[in-house]
Amino acid sequence: MSTRRRSVVLLGAIASCGAWTPVQESWSCGASVRRRPSFRLSIASSPDEQIAPQQDERRRSLRYEKELRDAYRRCGEITKIFSKTFYFGTTFFSEAKKTAVWAIYVWCRRTDDIVDSPLATMLGAERMAEDLEKWEARLDKIWQGEPTDSLDLALADAKRRYPELNIVPYKDMIKGMLMDTPGHEFYQSRYNTWEDLEVYCYRVAGTVGLMTLPVLGTSNGYTLEEAREPALALGIAFQITNILRDVGEDALRGRIYLPLDDLHKFGVSEQQIFDGIVDQNYVNLLNYEIERAKHYYEKARTGIPMLAPEARLAVASSLRVYKAILDKIVENEYDNFRKRAYVSKIDKFLMLPAAYLDILAESDRPAGESRHEHY
């Protein structure tokens, strides 16, 4: 999701339930929340008076449960509309995990929309920064169990069901959005070194792995802390892939995400990027960045056996699909200025058996063994 397509990609307005409006109003498809009230039963003077409050609370509780079901249903619809591939991956999960992941996805999507939508562009950078500040305050309320609308309610309930969900990666993602907000102190249109870009990749994509890990869970013998690094690596690998795929699109916006140190190392100028010139220097640069991405994919792959069994196929298949985009860039003769690298639906489907074999291979590998040395 980002101006150059971060981990959740803005595809257009949600026709069925309305588009995003400024953050204080929320998405128009997110109705206001009727919170579950707490009642103190007093000693009534008659049996009827004693029964009435109980019936009242029962009705309110049923209404709350219906709103919660509707909130999760809307989250699922939004996820399916904006990312059919991601939605398909969640079909391998239990109902509890699936709905929680949908809620997380929708929060990320809405966060991205604050800085990467036609309305955001029209309102300007100062308004973006203000809305992100208000959005962070809403996030705090979600963690306090005080959701603002029904989509927030879904995430608040997911937090209740999965207490190990940590607010830090959510706040870090907001910082990542600010790195794409012109005029803000965090804003960067260039990254001098890989270490600089890695911070950005963590904030806008690596955070997603940390958000979802407590929901996906770990297998026996592994802890969330042990699975943390592979989860981070997967998000960073996805983001490097996004950047490599979208070099031409970003150049049209006046942005270069590739580290300037790497451009200088291979004799590629910023002007060459803006002119869309593919020569041997540029090919060498892309091969270098592709190898970096592959290093992170391999690091992420080692975390597959650490995940709960029901989560492994979804993660393994998404890893294979996204990694295949790198091969498509090569097939396109490294022309990511004029040719879009993507994986077809049929190719995605055909990758499922290979993803299953990946799971078996990783499960048989001794703990700590890696295919590659550090990049």
UniProtKB/TrEMBL annotation:
UniProt keywords, alphabetically: Carotenoid biosynthesis, Signal, Transferase
Gene Ontology process terms (BP): carotenoid biosynthetic process
Entry annotated with the keyword Ligase: no
EC numbers: 2.5.1.32
One Pfam family cited in the UniProt record for this chain: SQS_PSY
Signal peptide bounds: 1-19
Keyword Transcription on entry: no
Molecular-function GO term, any one: squalene synthase [NAD(P)H] activity
Catalytic activity: 2 (2E,6E,10E)-geranylgeranyl diphosphate = 15-cis-phytoene + 2 diphosphate
InterPro entries, alphabetized: Isoprenoid_synthase_dom_sf, Squ/phyt_synthse, Squalene/phytoene_synthase_CS, Trans_IPPS_bact-type, Trans_IPPS_HH
PANTHER family for the chain: BIFUNCTIONAL LYCOPENE CYCLASE/PHYTOENE SYNTHASE (PTHR31480)
Name recorded for this polypeptide: 15-cis-phytoene synthase
Organism: Chrysophaeum taylorii
